[in-house]
């Protein structure tokens, strides 16, 4: 790693290099880990998410730009306007590799420009340029316009109108679905609104440098073995054909697919959304940089390319009663072009639809109304009419609307839940409740283990240990900044890390780094958002309403609060936290964490 970040102060229009000491880099690895370290170090305590003092950080990892498979990702870290907590949002594509080739491990953005601007970074040289003519443009239009102004081969990170309008579910998008290569979206937690609050419309990067590797020969030998493992893996073969949509049918069949705002775990008209149907509409397959998996599937809406994933199918499809792929694709395209997180957007629309179902919001669309969904998504991005009420997320909307709507406002700590029903997978119930950024499936995904028998389904047995272990492992892996999908072992990834960095890092040191990162984030969230046990919970529906299961809803399952509390108690004990969810002094000391007060 270069150990060097470009620090951009938008208020003064100045640039400087921010160098991370090697000792800190080794303790926090990169990506997610360095993200929380820098966020905590550079953000004054009490700074609001949309205040100029909030820090917006773009980070790569040790493998970024090397031949390591699935390393073409990057991380955006900031304080979330949706939750008030730490958030990291990950994206694929090619932007990260270009950034490292331009000479930096990341970009730190502080302050606020007095007018719309974009950043142009080329081989270590940076400048801020006027973006007044770009303000108001959609994602694709902005990407193409910035390339015309800079370099046709530039990689570009942009916000859409939702980010400009400070909608707290706004995304940052890298490149365009119209590109031959894969675009990426930093989707969760509203980093696009933070970027918009700084009057920063885009970042364009072009680099021609090389990426340093300490031990090139042994590293390439390890990479070759990883590629062999990927190509021999049956699950990867399926993902190459249909992408993440391979999950849709099995999730519905097992009662895990959220439908009608999490009122049931299966969707009767499922065959309009399954992977074979998606394959029928797929126009081309796309991959991130240095990735042989090629899981991206690009469809079309009215002739315009749209990349569709499982989470979008679940939240904008079954969750809202929309069962036809072309109608779903339209909703995804609206989100992608206006810059809305499809998970949160789908959850918000589903909440509004249930309000309509219960006679609370007669102006909201009904379940299954795809045209109504499309209009409401646009209204959320532009804060128009009902969209202005819903734009702040379901937690805030339920607070404004009242009338018991908090019962079915499906979120954890303000972040809308993704596409796995927690009453049907108890590991995910604990994972959601304890996630470091709110309702999120990527910190500990227990679904497969619960379905294949490695974990007992509808049981608390072993769940706390599994969730804690996987959270620490993922915290370390997200600091390497690699994808969830590659089937390589931790041992091989560590060997590659040693070869790239020259560090003689052990497995224990690596996993301790993951635990350190997790606890540092927890302490940041306690200080900035007052997080405690009261927040490590699920929406009331998950404890109070039995879940109708497939095939016809006659069988129902329940998650009892006492079972959940038992898992949470065990989780806190394993973490070395007190009964209110606060890391104990001995835990903080053992991990060597220093948090600003």
Detailed description of the structure:
This protein has 597 residues and is of the alpha+beta class. The protein has three domains: 4-206, Aldehyde Ferredoxin Oxidoreductase,  A, domain 1; 243-409, Aldehyde Ferredoxin Oxidoreductase Protein, subunit A, domain 2 (Orthogonal Bundle), CATH 1.10.569; 426-486 and 506-591, Aldehyde Ferredoxin Oxidoreductase Protein, subunit A, domain 3 (Orthogonal Bundle). The protein is built from 24 helices and 19 strands. The strands form five sheets. A six-stranded mixed β-sheet has the order 2-1-6-3-4-5. Helix 17 (426-434) crosses helix 19 (463-480).
- Count of helices? 24
Strand count, sense and barrel status of the largest sheet are: 6 strands, mixed
Our estimate of the beta-strand percent is 5-15%
State the secondary-structure class.
alpha+beta
Q: What is the fold-level CATH name, i.e. the topology of the largest domain?
A: Aldehyde Ferredoxin Oxidoreductase,  A, domain 1
Total number of distinct structural domains: 3
Largest beta sheet: strand ordering: 2-1-6-3-4-5
Terminal Cα span: 30 Å
| Overall shape | globular
The CATH homologous superfamily of the largest domain is called Aldehyde ferredoxin oxidoreductase, N-terminal domain
Rg over CA atoms: 22 Å
Helix % is 40-55%
Q: State the CATH architecture of the largest domain.
A: 4-Layer Sandwich
Oligomer: single chain
CATH class of the largest domain: Alpha Beta
